[in-house]
Each structure stands twice: as C-alpha cells, then as structure tokens.
Amino acid sequence: MGNGDINIRDDRDSAGKIPYSVVTNHARRHIERLHTPWPKTIIYEAHVQGLTALNSEIDPHERGTYRALGHPSTIAHLKKIGVTALELLPIHHSITEPAVWHRGRRNYWSYNPIAFTALNVEYAASQDPISELQWSVDRLHEAGIEVILDVVYNHTGEGGLGGPTLSFRGIDNKAWYRHQSDAEFIDVTGCGNTINASQPPITRHIIDSLRWWCEVVGVDGFRFDLATALYADHSAEDSSLFTAIAADPVLRDLKLISEPWDVTRYSLGDFAYPWREWNDHYRDSVRQFWLGDLARGFGEGVADIASRISGSSDIFYYRGPTSSINFITAHDGFTLNDLVSYENKHNEPNGEENRDGSSTNRSWNAGVEGPTDDVKILNTRKSLKKSLLATLILSSGVPMLSMGDEVSRTQNGSNNAYTQPLDEKDDLGVNLKWDLEAEEEDILNSVVELTNIRASYLAEISSEFFSGTLDLGTKRKDLAWFSLSGREMTDSHWHDGDKRSITVFIEASFNRGLVLLLNSSQEETMFTLPDATWGQTFRCIFDASQESSTYQPVIATPSARVAVAPHCVQVWLVSGSVII
User: Is residue 259 annotated as a catalytic residue, yes or no?
Assistant: First the structure.
C-alpha cells in the first residue's frame, strides 16, 4: 500500500461506508516529491466531488471522495490528457452562507472556510479523511502527478460583524480581522471580513497550516485565493506572510501560485520569485481574439494575442514565461463549451435574479444562444473549442485546464456555479462526464494530441522568453511572426485592426520547429507557409477543423499555400536542416 502508512480494508460497515484501518498517527511523514519543472507542468483544476461523482468504475460509496482521487481510473484519465498537477478547489472545512442556505442551496466551491487545517468531511468515504487523502496523494505521486491545493486564508465564513461566531472571531476578533473601526471590518474579499495576515500570530498560524498540508497530507503546492488580500499597505514583496513563506526551507520549494487581485486591488505581475500568477490578461486576450471580436463585430488586430502566446513578456519581463499561469476558463466563469454557446450568463438557478457572476465574458454563441441542432453552428463551436485548447496548450507559460473542458462539460450557461442544490443528485453540470458521445471524444482526443505536442516539442524550450533574434548557428530566429503572404510581419501588419489571422514559427531544436496557423475569421483563409530558410519539410500534425482520431497528416513544401478553415488552428511540424 504505497509507503506503508495506510492499511485499507474493503469490508463495509452497517451504513455502507468503507472503514479504514489506519496505522499512522497523522504525523509528519516522508513524501516522495516529484518537483516537476515548471516548463513541463500542465495543471488540471478540479473539484473533489465533481471529478469522480459520475465515474461508474468507482464504487458508489467512494465516488466524489478523497479516496476516489487515487482510483486507477481517475489517474488514467489525468495521465491520458497529459496533466502533471491536479489542483483541487478548497478542501478545508467550510460552511454555507446563511443567505445561500435559505435559498435552498449550498456553497459547492467551499471558498468559505472556518478552519484552515481541517479537511471537509463531506468529501470523505470513511471516518479517517486524512489517511484517505494521504493514500490518494501517494497514488498520484506514484503516477507522476503532483497535488496543488487552492487555499483560502484571506477571510473566514464568519462574515461581517453581524455574522456567526464559529472559530477565529471567538478566539480574538480584533486580532484576526482587519478593522476600519471598532464597529466596521475592512472587507477587500467581498465576504464580509479580511484576515489580518500581517499580525505575527496569524502569520505563524498560516505557516503552520501550510506546513501541515505539505508535510502531513503530502501536497506539492498551493494556489492562494485573493492573494493581495493577505497584505495591507505593502507590496507582495514586503508582505510579512509572503516573506515568511519565502524564508521557510520547505514551503519555498513548493509550487506557489497567487490569484493576484482582490475586490479592491489588481496586482498582476507584482509577485516576486518563486511565485507564479494566474494571468487573467491571457484569458481575456485569447477569448477576445477567438470569440469577443466576432461577438462585437470588430477587432483590434493580433498584437495582444501574439504577446500572450509568446509568454506575456510585457507583464513578466523580469521573471520568465513560467511566471504566467495561462488559462481560458476556471471554476469561476463559463466552461469552455458554454464560452462558445452563450453570449449572456444564465445564473437564475442561484436565486439571485441573475445579478451574480460577471457580465463581461468575451464569449460568442456562433449565432444561437444555448443548445442547437444546427449542424453548421455545432461544427463551428467544436472547431472553436479545439482552437482555444490549442492556443492554451501550445502557448509559452504554464497551461491550466479546467475540469471537464476536455469533454465539453456544460453548466447550461451558468458562469457562477458556486452554489448548487441541496440535493446532490441534481448537479446542474458541475460533475465531470465519464460516458462520452462522439463529439466529446473528439475534444478529448484533441487534448491528448495537443499535450503530446507540447511535451515533445515545447517543454524543453519554454523556461526563458524567446529572443526573436537571429541565431548564427541555425540562421533563423527562435520565434518569428508571418503574414498571410509567408513573409515576416511588418509594423503595418501589427497595427492592422482588421487582421484576423497570424502565423508563428517556434524553434524547438536545431532541426525541428512548429508553425501555428491561427485563423479567427469566419471565412476559409489561404496561408503561405514560411520559406526554406525555416525548414525543408512541413507536416500538419493538428487541424482543429478535423476529427482528431481519423486525421491524416498533410505534407507540404516550403512556401506552399494552404487553406485554413474558419475558426481554426493548424499546427505544422517543421523538419530538416535549413538552407543557408
């Protein structure tokens, strides 16, 4: 049983639960850490329950639990799609807000903690959730998959001054929370209170909590929700908490990710090494290029999308491209399927009269709001999903996939699924679908192919920004951009607001490279491949407009003209010594 910490029996008790016979005292233990390099990291953001709740290969009593995370079928799925890190939404003990409960709903995402170092027992298959999670973490590690926790240290579920006294408020209300006055909290989280993380005892408590999660449970890193709320008047670099994390001999070597904003402050790019940051500028730029411009009827050219694909050097110029956690979707917002199916949010089930959730989504429904039987629209949406995934996975930076995007999960137009019905059987699309239809299989196969391409050609070269300068050995640039004519782009191309297409060459090795053709227009477009200066053989290995399982690669010569379908990415492998 892994490292011998846990001995698990499968005999059920009278309630149908599987009891765990544990021979560990939940003390600090030896962890076989993977320390996957950031350039090789692909993150998969998932909810513990949602990931396995519908998986028929898992015993019904274990679905949606910590135990199910280590099930062979769960691991097989993660390995198949090429992810190297499983990022779990909060699993610390949390509560549902009274107002939400009175609407007949529960806080599904669990971003409302009342204890920082206690597992949410709702996700347990046994009476020993710690050992259960330890076992799954060990199984994931054995499979080469790291575990990252989304942690919420910025507020507690005790809300504003009129909220309940459940934990920290009862210990020392004045010390634990930031106050405007005796009668008013400082609330930069939108949740009624803000933890005073600069106070030495609170800093110590958070550090102890982080050490417990990594040394006892065995996790490999943390994503800090609303990270800017954890410091008051200073920058992130001067934060007492973040200074303590950077000085800690264990924590500083883990994967540390910040959400670099709160409801009052936006600090993308302000976090120092070793921090990585959620890059919402990447999200917005990619959505705008593929969807938002079509929805509004005009564009602003390709300069911004080029910056995002090449690693956002304008934001992380002094830290490198792996400082950027690239994502197009996350738990908060539309799923990938809904991003290309809805132009408006549909959050009515939350009971807040559709006032909740963002109204700025940069989405496009391809002509019909929601589900449709129109084959042309369905094909457009499928091509868009695959093109968005190709852009994400092949961009410089660290890609993060949102659970279910690889199988077209839909939340029926909800972009704020943080609450769910009290009856867990009615999930409204928050669970991963395991029994797939043909279209869903095609999206899944596309993700498999794209992550393979990334691992084969990009993982070894993405730790530093591309220079764009001429290499005296290869006589070509490590990164170059081309117009439809096959010639390198000029200033007039970069400033053309009507431009809907772009070609990028990425040098993978001395005699290998990738060429990405991006066509975000609604018309088939003819592209000219780069000339023999960049390689002798061009082979199309991915086409978003084609079925992935049956696609036959196309061979072309330098400077050949090739047709790219609407809303489509093509990926070409360039081989052979260059002509000098």
Answer: yes
